Amino acid sequence: MFFGLNEDVLADREPLFDVSIEGTQIYSLKPGWSMNDDQAYVEASVSVLDTAATVCFHSTGHGDPSVMSIEILQLHPQAYDFGVQWGDTVIFRTAKRVDCGADQGVYGESYNADPWGGNRFWFSDTEPDVVAKSSTRKLASSNPIRGTSVAPNYFPEAIYQSASVGTTVGQILNYNFNVEPNANYSVWLHFAEIEDGVTSPGQRVFDVLVNGQPFFSNVDIVGMARGPFAAIVLHRTVSVDGRTLTLSFRPNSQKSPMVNAIEIFQVIEMEKRTLNTQVWSLRVLKDTLGLPLRFGWNGDPCVPQQHPWSGIDCHFDHKKNTWFIDGLGLDNQGLKGFLSNDIANLQQLQSINLSGNSIQGLIPPALGTLQDLEYLDLSHNMLNGTIPENFGNLTHLKKLYLNGNLLSGRVPAALVGGPIHGASFNFSENAGLCGVPGLPSCNNHLTQGGKAGVAVGVIIGSLLLLLCGTCFWKRRQNILRAQRLALREAPYAKARTHFVRDVQMSRPNVHEHFRAYTDPGPQLLT
Predict the structure, then answer these.
(1) How far is it, in rounded angstroms, from Cα 213 to Cα 236?
(2) Would you state the pLDDT for residue 126?
(3) pLDDT-based confidence at residue 444 (cuts at 50, 70, 90)
(4) 514 in the Ramachandran plot: left (φ > 0), alpha (ψ -120 to 50) or beta?
(5) 20-to-25, 26, 58 alpha-carbon distances in Å
(6) Residues spanned by CATH 3.80.10.10 within the chain?
(7) Are the beta carbons of 190 and 161 closer than 8 angstroms?
(8) What is the Cα 192 distance to its own chain's centre?
(9) Between the chain's N and C termini, which has fewer beta carbons within 10 Å?
């Protein structure tokens, strides 16, 4: 990672910030870094155990982080074999990487380095202010070097084709590196004999000391590499109390000591992480509560310990070897969202303060499952609905403030008369609540369900009245229509009645007339 500033940024506005990888802080930029290339750069090797690598830049109150580039390279799985005692539990931050005797600093790409070795940057020890060292002379060779770019470390051949060597017989060759105090450092030394005339074991032998203490004894490059122009790498970890790591190469022969390249890594123990379920739950709350961007809430909420998430209280569980969330304090932050049931995953919560916001919606019953909860303040929001009945299960509750909301219905009896009797409660300024001293009696105060029942009854009654009224109106209209019809047809009906009577009165004469034509009268039988 490289950091930089635009030209229009003044020196007194130089931002200072920290850098963390996978929840572990690895670097802090110091004043003046923008004028020093060696300080505007950080590199680290870390084992990533999932599908994402988290890199965070934490402001320390002096400007916003300023990042030019981030490069992520995959190394050989066993690159830089630091030993089984470290495993995947540490990060190796590059404190210094020097190609001794090189003309200038270059990337491994310029050295045709193997990609599995990573595109490492090698500073030159000839550059000013890189390292403090005793006087040296430069050695260089174009001969091929055996044993380079070999798994798992893949060191480029070019770093062995230059070297720095003492200028006088018996001279101790010193390199001084500025480091962070009270830390462990892994020191890697690269050697290849490239000086003409030095071809046999015993010609160049020297000791290596770190801060005056023996580190390697009787280093014989030709003897250990079995000949000249062959690479060897020596490495060991050392604890440094002060701010300087001094490498001393002390001669044990007539030839002055020499070194081809130096790498120094700070060994940083990785922070333990927060429970994944709790991290995801907080990220859901970030969205549902509408958390302002200034909160960030990226990476891990509890680590690095120097930069926990704002509004989050963390506690370390030594038995489970992990962090968990035990406090949530986001009062008076202008939140306008709603509370999600995902808060149930934060089972170790002891304190929640979300007062003085504009949180809407219902109080999630998930809050009633937080058995360790002692303090819950949701006052002065816009919460509606009823208080969840399972709040009576919060037996450790000491303070419950729900005042200044839009809640309604009966306060659960278990809250004030059950196992948590004696806790401090405040339900005031909720026009719809009833059932505790200071609030209306529920006998004369319908619950939300009661209000709904009354409303349904009124609607059904109104519909029945409307239906009956409609039926009565239709029946009345039918009667009136029949009466009007009868009046309109009365003359025709009277005439028809007279005609029938006339016909009936004249019918006997017709019968007699008929008989006059059909009766033959008396006849004589013979």
Answers:
(1) 13
(2) 82
(3) low
(4) alpha
(5) 4, 5, 8
(6) 276-444
(7) no
(8) 48
(9) C
Beta strands in 411-475 (DSSP E): 424-426, 432-434
CA distance 433 to 452: 15
CA 484/CA 183 separation, integer angstroms:
113
- C-alpha closest to that of 158 among 102, 196, 218: 102
> Would you state the pLDDT for residue 84?
54
CATH number 1.10.3210.10 is the correct assignment for the domain at 82-269:
no
**pLDDT, tens digit, 9 for 90 and up, residues 204-258:** 999 999 999 999 999 999 999 999 999 999 999 999 999 999 999 999 998 999 9
Q: Indicate if the pLDDT at residue 136 is higher than 90.
A: no
Within 10 angstroms of residue 244's Cβ, the number of other Cβ atoms is 12
Share of the chain above pLDDT 70, in %: 82
d(CA 237, CA 177): 15
> How does DSSP classify residue 181?
S
Instruction: Establish whether the linkage from the previous residue to 152 is cis, with ω within 30° of 0.
Output: yes
Return the number of other C-beta atoms located less than 10 Å from residue 477's C-beta: 10
Question: Tokens for 15?
Answer: 């931002």
Question: pTM of the predicted model, to two decimals?
Answer: 0.74
What is the per-residue burial (b if ≥16 Cβ within 10 Å, else e) of 106-143?
bebeebebbebbbebbbbbbbeeebbebbebeebebee
pLDDT digits (tens, 9 = 90+) for 394-427: 889 999 999 999 999 999 888 776 555 567 899 9
Identify which has the larger pLDDT, 476 or 316.
316
Dihedral of the CA atoms 305, 308, 313, 317 (nearest 10)? -40
CATH: 3.40.50.300, 2.130.10.10, 3.80.10.10, 3.10.290.10. Which one for 276-444?
3.80.10.10
The residues of the chain that CATH labels 2.60.120.430 are 82-269
Instruction: Kindly give, in sequence order, each residue whose CB lies less than 8 Å from that of residue 80, ignoring residues fewer than 6 positions away.
Output: 45, 92, 152, 153, 186, 188, 265
Report pLDDT digits (tens) over 276-288: 999 999 999 999 9
Cα separation, 104 vs 102, whole angstroms: 6
